[in-house]
Amino acid sequence: MAASEPTMMEFDPYKEYRLQPMRSSSSATKSRASEVEEPILGNQDPEQPSRHWNFSIPLPALVASLLAAGGASVLLGWLLSRRVSSVGNSAFYGALVAAESAASLNGQSNNSPDTGGTTMYGLAFSSIVTHLVSLTTPLVLGVVAYLLASMWVHDQIHGRIGSLPTPSQYGHLVELCGSFGILTSNTLVAAFVAAMIALLLNYALSISDLWLHTTATTFSFEYTTPIAGPSLVAAGSVINTALCPGPAPFLDTTITTYSNCLHRHSNMSGSDLSWGNADQINEGAAVLANTSSSSQIQLIGSLATLLPKNLPKGIQNLVFRTFAMEATCKPVTDCEPSVTASNSNTTSFLFCPSFTPPFAIPHESTINQFNSTDNSLIFESGTPESPAYRIGLDGNFRQPGYSLYSTLNPAGLLVSLYYEMGGVSFAVRVNEPGWYGVALFAPDALAATINLFYISACVLDVWDVEVSYSAPLDHTSPSLMLTSAKIHSDFNTTSALLGALDSAYSGTVASRLATSLEGSLNFTADIFSTILAGNLSQSILASAAPLTQRTESKRGDAIHSRTVSRYPLAPLGMVLALSYTYALLALGVGLTALVQPSRETSDLLWLRLTSARTRIKDRFDGQSASDSRQESREEHIRDSHLTGHLGAGFVSSAVNIYGESQIKQRNGRTFRVDMVENLLDEDKHT
Hints:
Largest sheet: 12 strands, antiparallel
Low-confidence stretches: 1-50, 104-115, 177-184, 340-346, 442-448, 621-643, 650-683
Structural class: alpha+beta
Keywords: Membrane, Transmembrane, Transmembrane helix
Mean pLDDT: 71
Helix content: 25-40%
Number of helices: 15
Shape: rod-shaped
Radius of gyration: 52 Å
C-alpha cells in the first residue's frame, strides 16, 4: 500500500485522546509511540476538583420533594383536623372518619338530620398528590441523570474503563429504561434502579389512590355537644309558691285541721266553697286528656311523671327535676250492703268496716283519702255541689283534713267506682274480688236491678325525681329514665300535689276515672287493679299540674347530625407512605446532586443524558440534509466484544490516518467525536 494512501485503524479513546484543560489550543491526539494507560481527564487532580454551587440542577428534585411531601401533609392534616370519633361505633374501626362538610362545629343543633351529603375533599387531595408525583417524576429522573453523569466522570478520573457505558448502553441511559446484568456498567444499573424505583412508586401510588377511591364511603354520624346554661330548656317542675305557699286552714274556724292550698270549705250549704278557679280546673282536665299546651303526663315504668308539653328533638340526656306519682291498688273485700229495704231514706249502699271510722259508700263514684298507716279517713268525698262536711255515719263524725306536718306521703286512697246496669255493657262480676252488686228496690228483683260498685284501697307515693330525657333526630320515640333514686316529696309539696283528693274536688276526679275505665271492666281483677293504679296516679298528678311552674334544667347535650367521610386506614396509609417515600427519594436525589463537585464535564454529560439538542450535536455534524439522510440509513452502533466504552467525548469506531505524519481526520458521516472542552466552547457560542 502506498505511503500516501490513507489507512484505517481502530481508534481507542482511552489511548488516543486526553481531555485538555479549558481553552487549550493543543491537539487532543498523540502518537502511538507515547501510548500509556492513563485515565482520561488525568490532568485533573481528583483530590482538588473545581467546585461551585449550582442550585439550578437539584432544584427540580427539591421542588418535587416539597410538592409530594406537602401534598401528603395537606391530606393528612385535613383529615386529622376534621376527624371525629365515637366509642363503640363499628364504622370507626380500621378507618379515619372525618366530617368534611362546610358546616362549622359550633355546638348548636338545628334539630334535624343532615341530609345534604358531604364533599370528600380527602379523595381530591389524594388524587392531587398522585398527579403531582406523576408530573414530577421526570424532574427527579432528570436530576438522577446528573448523578449518573457525575458517576461517569468519576469512573473516568479513576480509570475504571469497564464501568463506562457502551454506545448501546448510552442509548439505554438516555431512554432510562432497559435491563442489566452482571457485566452491565454501574451507571446503567444506577439509572435502571432509579427509574424503576420512581416508576414503581408512581404506579403503586396510582393503584393505592384507586384503592382509596373505591373503598372510601360516607355515612350519617350523630354526635353531641354540651348545651350552654342559657340555652337549656326549662323542663323541670316546682310548686308555684305564689299560688300555693303551703297548706291552708278551713274557713270555718271551728275546724282546726288543714287542707290543700286551694281548698276552701265552710259549711254544708256550699257557701264559701271553692277549689282554685275555672282556668285551673280546666287546665288539669286538659293535662289529663293530653290537650294542654303547657304540660303532659308520661309514664316511666309505673311512674306517672309531670313533663313540659313541647320538649325539643335533637337532644340527649336533658336532666331536670320534676314530680312523679306511683300507685298500687288491691280490692277491698270486707264491705257489706247497708240498706236492703226499699223504703230506706239513706243514700248509703255499702259499708266498709275496715276503715276508721267505717266508710259508708254512696251511690256515686268517690275517692277518699285515708292515712295509709292506720286506715283512718282524712276526707270523705262528696260532689262539687255537696261536699262532705264531716266523716262517717251518724254518731261517727269527726273533722276532715290533716294536721300540719303529719304523714301524707304515701297517701291512702279509697276508690269507689259506681256503674248502673243500664249505663254500660259488662258482665255481672259479683264473684270477683272488689266487685259488689246492690239492689235498688226489692231483694226479689235483685237479678234485674243490680248496680255494681268496685271498691279498691290504693297507696299513692309522691316523689321528687331527677329525669333524663333524650329525643334523637331520626324520628324515633323519645326516651325517659331516672338518673338517681327517687325521693318522697316533703309535706308542703305533697299537700299541694294531692289537691285532687280533698272533699271539694275528689268527686269530679272520681267521676272522670270511672268513665275512663269503662273499656277495661271485663278484664280480670289483677289486670283491672293495675290499670286502675296507673290511671289514678295520672289523674291526680294532672289535676295538680296547674299548681306548678317550669324551672331550668340542670344539663343536657345537643345532638348534631353530620354526613362524614370514612377512609379505610390501609389504602390511606399506603397513599401517605408512598407519597412520603417518593418525597424522601426526591429530596435525597436533590441533596446528593447539590453536594456533587460541579464540574463542567458533569454538566455536559448531564445535558447529553437529558437534552435532545446536545444529543443532536453529538450525533450530526454540519453536513447537508442529504448527508443526514444518508447517515440515517447507516447501520446503528451495536454492542459487541470489540466495541469500546464511551468516554467523556463520544467517538466513532474508526478514523482515517493519512501518510506517515499520522494525521487523523474525523469522518463526518460517522458518530461524531467531540471533546468536552470543544462542546463547551460550542455551547458558549450558541
